[in-house]
């Protein structure tokens, strides 16, 4: 039961006023407010909403059904879309031999501190330690060189849905930074750079659609700096989200053009149409369960989780409200009829008919779990052939005749998605500060802003900005240079170096 959920570490039940009443009545209120202690609020929400459970290994989390259903809905969308692009699913082993891992030194250097190693079998030491994949380039590409011989073998377009392990020790956070997480990783090989370039942006658009059409989160499509790009790749594109409460950017998903670097290392060569030897051009791209954490952070409130309707495993919860001496059977029958009618129309609906909890407790429980729409049915509703509908996003209440319920629920769910997206976009846009000088940059950074600044695009300057902004909150860095570039007037200077600016770039602190 939700009111018996094991509390997350370091959470104590302090709170005042109205919140105490809720806790007294239902045992379900949150101890922390989103605006006052974001970190503790987030930890509490993901546990109390039954999304995750803490595990006995730090940085590892149990993903409960409430989370997996969100993941499966996004997975169904993305999997169908990549199949339209003739990308096929496969599966490669979890383990990597050290020899293969070391072949691509630049690439693995970026992951080296996070690679977990298997060194024992039972009580015996392994003759050669085995790595657990932090990502699968070095796992897959030795076999690409075996399978790709001539131009007719291209393009080779594979994807796998799997887990990866990155043994990070700094600030593990459910969904956002964990030692094991679920993701998809696509790995494709082409005869030409042009084909690779086209796919990078096609995949990036799918990632944008996941965030905006499913999670109701606005993102910026952009290109990473040389310093922030994928180690060993040619260039990296990403979708970037922003968390206004913490003033931090968050990399939402990445689509990389790897160029020919891995083809060179793993000898992925082919005979082209002219009979000449050529090297393949490669891409890799991934999004992970981090997406779910971003959703919680952006939309959640002081009553708990707020789920966008498209990814909610339960879109509508139906709750009977029997008053004293009411005809309970008639109310329960009306609940069942409502569930069946909405289910047949394609909605994901459940009724909470448990008789050991009050309607008030159930309201709090399903609000905590973020269900987009609540339908209440009491004796007056039965008499009038209507139901009361309550939205989770703004708690607006409306009485709807049973005869028009299906159409109205459909419209309300569409409206909830749009309202969540619009509110998130407004909050993010209010945080965007355009700066031209170093002083403006520092001021904006201290105000937890998402900073858009003209930049000379030099690595040394970016390193210098990181060094000069290092502090307890973490250093500022480039998040991305938006693909949709604002106009850069001639003579515009870099905010940090005073050299001629080459592009507009988003800067800020990040997760």
From TrEMBL:
GO molecular function: ATP binding; proline-tRNA ligase activity
Transmembrane segments: none
PANTHER family: BIFUNCTIONAL GLUTAMATE_PROLINE--TRNA LIGASE (PTHR43382:SF2), PROLYL-TRNA SYNTHETASE (PTHR43382)
Enzyme nomenclature, EC number: 6.1.1.15
Domain called Aminoacyl-transfer RNA synthetases class-II family profile: residue spans: 93-308
Polar residues bias spans: 1-11
Enzyme class: ligase
NCBIfam families: proS_fam_I (TIGR00408)
GO biological process, one term: prolyl-tRNA aminoacylation
Region annotation (Disordered) ranges: 1-20
Record keywords: Aminoacyl-tRNA synthetase, ATP-binding, Ligase, Nucleotide-binding, Protein biosynthesis
SUPFAM superfamilies with a match to the protein in the record: C-terminal domain of ProRS, Class II aaRS ABD-related, Class II aaRS and biotin synthetases
Protein name (Swiss-Prot/TrEMBL): proline--tRNA ligase
Reactions mediated catalytically: tRNA(Pro) + L-proline + ATP = L-prolyl-tRNA(Pro) + AMP + diphosphate
Name of one Pfam family that matches: HGTP_anticodon
Cellular component GO terms, alphabetical: aminoacyl-tRNA synthetase multienzyme complex; cytoplasm
